[in-house]
Amino acid sequence: MERSGGSLATLYSHFENKQGLLKAVMERSREMKLAGLMEAVDGADTCCEALKTLALRFHDFLNAPSAVAMMRIMIAESLRDPVFARQFYCRGRDEVTAEVAALFQRWAYSGRAAIDDAGEAAALFMATTLSDTQINAMVPAEGRPCREAEHARLIWRVEHFCKGFGIR
To answer: Which parts form a coiled-coil structure per UniProt (predicted)?
Structure first.
């Protein structure tokens, strides 16, 4: 703040409170990342390759130092205000899951996937690919699996997901 010539009071005058500032930062970050994630799908040769790329990008995004720092802030804030944290978490998760569900729906209509419930398939994909990514991201770097091992695990999971839903 000192380098910018401003003060916390000036910063907070643009937001209701610290939560308002945190919400604005998180939403902007999520919007930018969601756009980048879904771009990965457009450039893939196959639907399964698109899902692999999507899973790896989710993983790398959640393990980026800035994302880990933000998760830690949200965890701390959730202790003070569980409702705020829950709303934010659910909104982010629900938006990404809805984007994946829309993708699955398009694939099912075009015959590139045998998905009868795109919403549930998207929820399963998110759970399958992200289940331990967020937890591992919170572990100090020296205690977590290496990036290559995590990527190999994700690719294996996505390949089996694709086989189960007939995704080509």
So the answer is: none
